[in-house]
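Preliminary data (for renewal application), iron/sulfur cluster complex.
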Amino acid sequence: MELLAAQNIVDTGCFSLVKGRMAKGCEYCIKGQKLVLFITGLCGLKCFYCPVSDKKINKDVIYANEWKIEKPEDLLEEARLTEAKGVGITGGDPLVVVDRVCEYLRLLKKEFGKKFHAHLYTTFRLVNEERLKKLYEAGLDEIRFHANLYDKTLWPQIELARKYDWDVGIEIPCIPGMKKEILELVDFMKEKVKFLNLNELEWSERNDCEYLSRGFMLKNQLSYAVKGSAELALEILKEAKNAGLTLYFCTAKLKDNVQLKNRIKRRAKNIKKSFDQVTDEGTIIRGAIYLPELTPGLNYRQKLEQADKKKYLPILEELRQKLIAQLKISEDLIFVDEVKLRLITDRRLLKKHACFLKKQNLIPAVVEEYPTRDALEMEVSFV
Ligand code: SF4
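Predicted structure:
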């Protein structure tokens, strides 16, 4: 620690290091106060380290955190449920759909006020005066460029972004073996941008072979961070001559242990039913009643995506009313879950009536799941 302090490197206490003043977007992000708006999966590049999943890459889909949104109001709802104080717009390359970005930005600023902090990640590929002007006029506060370390040709495009009164930064993965190039990038950008963020390189399942062929390995069994990335980031922070430019290193651990945890705890507080148990981690334990054909198991997510909501929602509501009458329980102890097409209820009540439910050809279970829109299951115990 002393050695770090001597070099003006500060341990934030949240699994990240900073030399200088952390970007405003990161301050909100660490607290889990940023809504992650994945505005499109379309992108003209094919970075070997691309972290975007198969489900999203090169598909024109929109997600607000884990919620695949269909209308702008869904975005506002997710922002409310997570008590977001700002938005981080990502993709794909958001500049592919710049008008959509501006529409959503305006909507968020109108609903939550000008102080709702907005930052955006993009590449230099589609940057031009017209697109930047649109973003600035829509209220963007901070723009971060993903600079290509393997081809410097487009780096001078940074000049276009400097014309506006917003914060400009660079954000790249810290790729082992690329020390020389990263130091060159710091040197090139140091008088042009406010910050340069290094992210710990994470394993990309889509590009397994590419990673293996480059000799990359996982840091350890419990992490999906790549060995050597954190060490290189520390070397860069120590060695870079970065007067005036903030250098920041963000670990993979920060995303899960700090950022995500803070966000889900807030969402749990806002979505929990009176009978739900919220754990210290922010997950929810509750009773769930499944229809046989929509029970967690093989291809569960796929089945849910393909299920016809118009058909199932009335069936579930009818079932709910029937159970309220048969079990003589109050209305607020059983609900239709419109996302996972099941009923949710008090786990104690569920256990008490498990035999009855099974006789009705229903599948009762106690589940522990994330309070996210997709309610990802951590554990399903059939009763
Ligand atoms: S620019 Fe981003 S989204 Fe596009 S391929 Fe590279 S890492 Fe993936």
